[in-house]
Write a structure and sequence with these properties.
Length: 299
Amino acid sequence: MRRATPEAIYSHTAASNPVTFTVAPGEAFEVDTVPTCGRQFDSRTGQWHEDAEGGINASAGCIAVTGARPGQVAVVHVLGIELHEFGYTRVGRRSPVVGRLGPDDGWQPGCKVVRVRDGWVEWSDALRIPAAPMIGYIGVARPAEALSNAHNGEYGGNFDVPEIAVGVRVHLPVFCEGALLHVGDVHAIQGDGEIDGAGGIETGARLTLKVELADRPASFRNPRIESDEFIATTGFARPAEAAFEQALEDLLRWMAAEFGHSLTDAHMLLAQVLEARATQFVNPLITYLCKARRRWLAR
């Protein structure tokens, strides 16, 4: 299997980024990622190298998909996530509680390096947390626009959605020839809200992916996430209510277009079975996820 290595890492998603790897639709391939901070943290040894190349949600190069063109959807299959042995988390000024808590409360910035092995995050000698590997950043380029990998939007980007894990398919609209896929910011685990700003347990990984191409449905707006168990839509906005409204509307339209529901019936059904939450509050735009289990959707 061919592998994309992080010889070039990008902290911006842009059509001007040189292509570092090209794949055919339906071809399984591997991507070696670095942690969100680039090469400043070595996730194989657990060592910091502050003078090394850094980044923000550093993507492992720029991946072109042969034949991808504007008006299509790139469906990214997550086939495997093999985590590196070490990761870290840290809290600083990006936490949502900065300004509410301070030194007088006993709060201060901090950083913690942990070991990740045998399916566990070793938080301390007394506490292990089951690992739940996920991809935080997965997006495509838009023409004449370079966006920091801190951002998210209709092109994907910094989702920070724990559902982007092995077995899911992420649907991204194509804006440029080749799609120009950027992937990075793997977490060994992340709680909802990503409240400390840096994860999750930030680490590197070897990803196994596959990209297929499809025509863009008329009802398609923001990126979609699906598995054999659920379908989910995303919203990116501030305040959180606006992001929720985006995701909810898209889920209703998806159910009406592809699952045989009227908008009214879909709305009433979701009032009983909808799963929804803000998965991160620390990016410029909040990510909201709306999800429905497939077992409820069959007509």
